[in-house]
């Protein structure tokens, strides 16, 4: 394969690269960082970009744009992964995978003071305070804070409260004290040790060790009850019930799973969603979903490596046992990766992957709510991919034949524009040249009439034709397009009724689309509309034919007379039941006599 040319200075830099872990940066002619990568072996990894032509077009474009490079050597591949993640955030290179939802999540902080405060924040300051979270939405963090304040009288004031300040009597009791929301820390009504015991229980809840706290509270309740201290026991019972309700909101996965981390991935296109869940004592206590944008066809393994680095850095997580769908492209000697096939761990991975999938669905719904055209574009792009079309099928037409035992053969044409019905463009066709129930010939006639007219009038042709039927109807449609010179200008497929099989011209093996696919739903909607529209027209023609058949043979009764009678009496049955005078009021005595006599001739 051809090698990409590189400058002498770049060649020299590559030749002296070390065989050690590190991070490399590529620059373009303007000196802008266009790509940052990590490597277990810098020399081998960087050289691989230039010694062959790549399958990915974007990778080839990247290599052509590189005019210079630099690198940083680090002790381990894990260090390289972390450094790569931070440098990508710093430089935002155009060819790197993009972490799209890189944002600051809310945390709950317990301050490092004699009388600690507990509040929500998005900033982490290294002052000895302890941070818990992050919480993926503000509502969840606020709900947790509300629980803690119901359970324990935690001060909410922002006063820096040192022990010397309290002893000096500088504090004043506020409204929270009188509402029993605070125990009066500022005036020393509660000691730092007693207040600290409540804070330790708060920390226990925030860590997710709820089971341990419930056991403690139950023991204290029983102890107080035995000592006849029922009011105090009742206060603990209220706390116990609140914590139990809070625990019920956690996802219980298994009593056998203790502490473990899970990474589920939803990889459908260039947008990739990776969900991270932390399980503690069998309950999911943390869940975060990251969104990545592919730039160079990065593999799942690479993306999982990026996600683990991001979670480790932003949440301060140290991994031990990690459940994954496949082995990440990262070297972590102290981490045990688990790829379960069955059991509780497999179910847990499935939950994580469903969360990643749901994040995608929610994102799409939000976008479509803001811009309804986005949904149509997404559906049409999926149809274009599924049917291998050269352009978006913004204009689709579907045809269906309808006849009963060969009588009154008709066909219907329904039109969808931007994946929605365009009912003003629907058309009916009465079959003119075909004798008997011949669906194939009828299909050919209708398509020939439809598109000959559109071409002659210079009107827009559809990008896709759907015919209701299998290979036979599809062949008839293709034959019609061939004869009109439209083959290749309009794509055509057939849908068989029984198994929802999609047939393509010249291919005897049908395509089976996922039952939940939006492409199949649109095609089914087209087919059902064409069937409904055709049946309605056929029923109208058949009813009209049956209604006038008995009047057609009456000599001396013309079309105007028949129309007047049916308009007034609504049906031949009512006309037969009417007396001579009633008929005469509509068409006169002479005509009435002829009609009345013909209808009652047998009598």
TrEMBL record:
All copies of domain GIY-YIG, residue ranges: 19-97
Annotated GO CC locations: cytoplasm; excinuclease repair complex
Keyword Ribonucleoprotein listed? The answer is no
Q: What is its main location?
A: cytoplasm
Alphabetically list the UniProt keywords. Cytoplasm, DNA damage, DNA excision, DNA repair, Excision nuclease, SOS response
- The organism's superkingdom is given as Bacteria
GO molecular-function terms, A-Z: DNA binding; excinuclease ABC activity
Question: Cross-referenced SUPFAM superfamilies, in alphabetical order?
Answer: C-terminal UvrC-binding domain of UvrB (SSF46600), GIY-YIG endonuclease (SSF82771), RuvA domain 2-like (SSF47781)
Does the record carry Coiled coil as a key word? no
**Where does this polypeptide localize?**
Cytoplasm
**Pfam families, sorted:** GIY-YIG, HHH_5, UvrC_RNaseH, UvrC_RNaseH_dom
User: Locate the UvrC family homology region profile domain: which residues?
Assistant: 267-481
Query: What's an example Gene Ontology biological process for this entry?
Result: nucleotide-excision repair
Q: Which family does it belong to?
A: Belongs to the UvrC family.
Assembly and binders? Interacts with UvrB in an incision complex.
Q: Which NCBIfam families match?
A: uvrC (TIGR00194)
Provide the function of this protein: The UvrABC repair system catalyzes the recognition and processing of DNA lesions. UvrC both incises the 5' and 3' sides of the lesion. The N-terminal half is responsible for the 3' incision and the C-terminal half is responsible for the 5' incision.
PANTHER family the UniProt entry points to: UVRABC SYSTEM PROTEIN C (PTHR30562:SF1), UVRC/OXIDOREDUCTASE (PTHR30562)
Q: What is this protein called?
A: UvrABC system protein C
Q: Which organism is it from?
A: Duncaniella muris
């Amino acid at each position: 394969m051809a090698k990409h040319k590189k400058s002498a200075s770049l060649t020299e830099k590559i030749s002296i690269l070390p065989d050690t872990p590190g991070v490399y940066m590529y620059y373009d002619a303007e000196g802008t960082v266009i790509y940052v990568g990590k490597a277990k072996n810098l020399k081998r990894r960087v050289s691989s970009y230039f010694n062959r032509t790549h399958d990915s077009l974007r990778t080839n474009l990247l290599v052509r744009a590189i005019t210079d490079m630099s690198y940083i050597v680090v002790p381990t591949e894990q260090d390289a992964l972390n450094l790569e993640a931070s440098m990508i955030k710093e430089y935002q290179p155009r060819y790197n995978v993009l972490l799209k939802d890189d944002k600051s999540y809310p945390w709950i902080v317990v301050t490092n003071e004699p009388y600690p405060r507990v509040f929500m924040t998005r900033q982490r300051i290294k002052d000895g305070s302890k941070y818990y979270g992050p919480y993926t939405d503000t509502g969840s963090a606020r709900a947790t804070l509300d629980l803690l304040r119901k359970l324990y009288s935690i001060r909410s004031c922002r006063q820096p409260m040192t022990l010397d300040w309290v002893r000096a009597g500088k504090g004043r009791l506020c409204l929270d004290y009188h509402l029993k929301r605070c125990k009066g820390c500022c005036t020393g009504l509660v000691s730092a040790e007693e207040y600290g015991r409540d804070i330790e229980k708060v920390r226990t809840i925030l860590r997710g060790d709820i089971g341990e706290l419930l056991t403690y509270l139950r023991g204290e309740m029983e102890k107080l009850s035995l000592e006849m201290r029922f009011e105090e026991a009742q206060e603990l019972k209220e706390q116990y019930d609140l914590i139990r309700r809070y625990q019920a909101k956690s996802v219980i996965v298994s009593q056998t799973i203790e502490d473990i981390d899970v990474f589920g991935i939803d990889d459908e296109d260039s947008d990739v969603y990776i969900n991270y869940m932390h399980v503690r004592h069998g309950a999911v206590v943390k869940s975060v979903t990251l969104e990545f944008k592919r730039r160079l066809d990065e593999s799942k393994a690479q993306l999982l490596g990026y996600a683990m680095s991001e979670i480790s850095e932003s949440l301060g997580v140290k991994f031990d046992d990690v459940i994954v769908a496949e082995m990440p492209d990262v070297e972590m000697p102290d981490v045990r990766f688990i790829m379960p096939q069955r059991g509780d761990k497999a179910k847990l991975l499935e939950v994580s992957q469903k969360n990643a999938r749901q994040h995608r669905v929610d994102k799409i719904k939000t976008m479509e709510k803001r811009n309804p055209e986005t949904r149509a574009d997404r559906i049409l792009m999926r149809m274009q991919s599924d049917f291998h079309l050269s352009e978006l099928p913004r204009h689709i037409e579907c045809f269906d034949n309808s006849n009963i035992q060969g009588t009154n053969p008709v066909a219907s044409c329904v039109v969808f524009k931007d994946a929605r019905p365009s009912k003003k463009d629907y058309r009916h066709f009465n079959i003119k040249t075909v004798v008997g129930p011949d669906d194939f010939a009828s299909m050919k006639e209708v398509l020939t009439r439809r598109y000959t007219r559109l071409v002659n009038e210079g009107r827009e042709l559809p990008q896709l034709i759907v015919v209701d039927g299998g290979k036979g109807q599809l062949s008839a449609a293709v034959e019609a397009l061939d004869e009109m010179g439209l083959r290749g200008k309009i794509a055509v497929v057939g849908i068989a009724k029984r198994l929802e099989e999609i047939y393509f011209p010249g291919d005897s093996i049908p395509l089976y689309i996922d039952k939940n696919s939006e492409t199949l739903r649109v095609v089914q909607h087209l087919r059902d509309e064409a069937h409904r529209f055709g049946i309605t027209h056929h029923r109208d023609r058949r009813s009209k034919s049956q209604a006038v058949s008995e009047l057609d043979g009456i000599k001396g009764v013309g079309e105007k007379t028949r129309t007047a009678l049916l308009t007034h009496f609504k049906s031949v049955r009512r006309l037969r039941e009417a007396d001579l005078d009633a008929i005469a009021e509509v068409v006169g005595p002479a005509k009435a006599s002829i009609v009345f006599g013909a209808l009652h001739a047998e009598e």
